[in-house]
């Protein structure tokens, strides 16, 4: 002990052996500009300039992990870091970190603009770790994004395209907007942005479209372009199963210019033809054979739409057994009393793009007798007592529509109602890719394409800069595709079966990063925050280095020795 070198323990000496993890938010919101340029680019530059070369750390971005590296080894990766289509999710990143074998104690440096961060996510930060937040601030919070595009109306020669914009911030006055098909300009205008939401209409030729809409907005750029495709209109195959006299009204709706419509009595039904249909109408069948039930269940699972119109002779027990194949819809008693169909659920997906304005004074159709229905699905049309006249079970690839009453003219005047045309038209067309095709990256909704593959056949999606093979399931003459988090970049793509073109498809980034509203200042009040990575490294070094007193003693001893020698030399 006599020769021990004296020192004071550093304030944070117990954390000297902590492993370091840097979480870097590379969301699109980090495109916003701060005092020194784009937030992400500035954060990367600070890491490159201020991280000590001998410091070992692991880097985690929104989607990638780089374990046990140093700034020299990861320099090129940081310099080429791209913005991620997947939004910043602290929980998901911490789950990745915790799944990796690590020490119990960690230093976690989180660089994020904190967009979307909430107190629930912060609760998952381990208590025994030291967490630091660097929250770069955007100077300009104004932003405009293109949120969606859809066909509002179709005429013989044109599509009326509806474009929805969102405006965030203040004093956004006007903005140029343009539409391109195959990179060729086809329409351009300047719009005033006097409200947070704005809808614009464009007429474009009724033909195949594979292009985009763009705006000129000076802040975030990722949401300035919306890619979409419109396929050449394909006829929709519809079959009605039931008595031919009861299908006459369907023949007037499903006309030859847009549909291949047929009717078949149950006794002469060709079961093999059902797999070629896009929609099947069960039109007041007194009984549904077990073989047909099995076929219809498979048909719906493979992307076909089913429309069910009950018969007054149906057994309630048999009906419920059949409908149980598709969801939670239960028929109860058959009631013989007049009812008014008086309410349209305008928010139901069935009526998307159907009505320009909400109408309340239409001529109410009636039914003389109907089944009461118990179900948890939102109704599309309701009686005056708020019970369902038309309800639906929607899934990502198909829909099952269920009426609660027979539609024959003896029981109802619904066939004479103007509502019947858009209702049956939209039911048959659900998910048939005859509208705008624009998928969101990261959204797990499947996409169904008409394609006949061999046993080992595979569909591939590609454009000039990227190509990938989606997860796919063969369903007769159709293929169901899911994409997980692909593609990496938004754009227009083509689907190929080997070298043969099948269909166009478009992908866009999620718009969840478009609102740059600043962070709640109280959210991080219980956590250590810093203005720069430099200050964090300086703090770690000063707080974790022991105060070595013996070094100071040696220094002072040498100084005193020099002073003494000077005195002896110069003062005789």
Automatic annotation (TrEMBL):
Keywords: Membrane, Transmembrane, Transmembrane helix. The keyword Transmembrane helix applies. It comes from the Bacteria. The chain crosses the membrane at residues 549-571. Signal peptide: none annotated. The keyword Transmembrane helix applies. PANTHER family: BLL2463 PROTEIN (PTHR37464). This is Membrane protein.
